[in-house]
Specification:
mainly beta; 2 domains; Lipocalin; five-stranded antiparallel β-sheet; single chain
Length: 251
């Protein structure tokens, strides 16, 4: 029986708060937050080669910064107006060499399209949307909804099913009547919880017709049932272990 192994395993010094996948460059970007130190950093990994482009990248604003979107190997960041307000301000663009390509603190990000980011100048009212050049930040032309359509993200999420749906015997006794389930390339991917000696744990299993080909303990000693724990991107299984470790498998 052939066992599966991750081809990307990367542990970060904080919680993986958010992930973005850029399908043009096949890059996954992560926002990592260290709540104790009030510090946010960013990382970039090539999903084809498994190579880490950068990790631990920060901006002058240590905490009030976050990811907006990623397009053509460039990560767009924003600042927050204040710690208590969710309003975004400014745009910072970072390439896969961790170099700041451009920044503009009068722009704000609106949404991403197949042609690039749509932005607007916060100093102009009413709001006017423009398509911006991803590598320079220059306004190319006004936003045209008919051609500036939403990009395909190629991400699929698991179904929520009862463990009784699965005909195979599971390695552990499930806790509760919910599991996350996905079928891909004749594989059955299952995430579920188990209660052992009063301790709640979350597991990931991958099975084929012959039996188990991969398993991992995702979270130990948790207090409540966790949300969906993995995604499928094209032919890749992507999941987070213990909130701070990224793992990617080819299926």
């Amino acid at each position: 029986m052939k066992m599966l192994l991750p081809f990307i395993t990367e542990t970060f010094p904080g919680v993986i708060w958010r992930m973005e996948i850029d399908s043009l460059s096949e890059t996954i970007f992560m926002e990592i937050r260290d709540t104790d130190d009030k510090k946010v950093s960013f990382a970039s990994i090539d999903l084809l080669s498994g190579k880490t482009n950068y990790t631990g990248v920060t901006t002058p604003e240590r905490w009030l910064t976050g990811m907006e979107a990623a397009y053509d190997a460039i990560l767009l960041l924003h600042n927050y107006q204040s710690e208590g307000a969710p309003v975004h301000k400014g745009i910072i663009a970072i390439d896969n060499k961790a170099t700041i390509c451009w920044s503009n603190y009068t722009y704000a990000f609106d949404h991403l399209t197949i042609n690039g980011p749509i932005v607007y100048n916060v100093q102009i009212q009413p709001k006017k949307l423009y398509l911006a050049a991803i590598k320079t930040g220059a306004a190319i032309r006004p936003y045209e909804p008919a051609i500036d359509t939403e990009p395909e993200n190629y991400i699929e999420v698991p179904q929520i099913l009862s463990p009784t749906y699965l005909k195979q015997t599971l390695p552990i006794e499930p806790h509760g009547d919910v599991m996350h389930y996905f079928e891909h390339n004749n594989l059955r991917i299952v995430s579920l919880h188990s209660l052992t000696a009063g301790q709640l744990k979350q597991y990931l299993y991958i099975m084929d017709d012959a039996g188990l080909v991969y398993e991992d303990l995702l979270n130990a000693d948790i207090q409540k049932l966790q949300p969906e724990s993995f995604i499928i991107y094209k032919n890749l299984l992507i999941y987070i272990k213990n909130k701070s470790e990224l793992k990617v498998l080819n299926l």
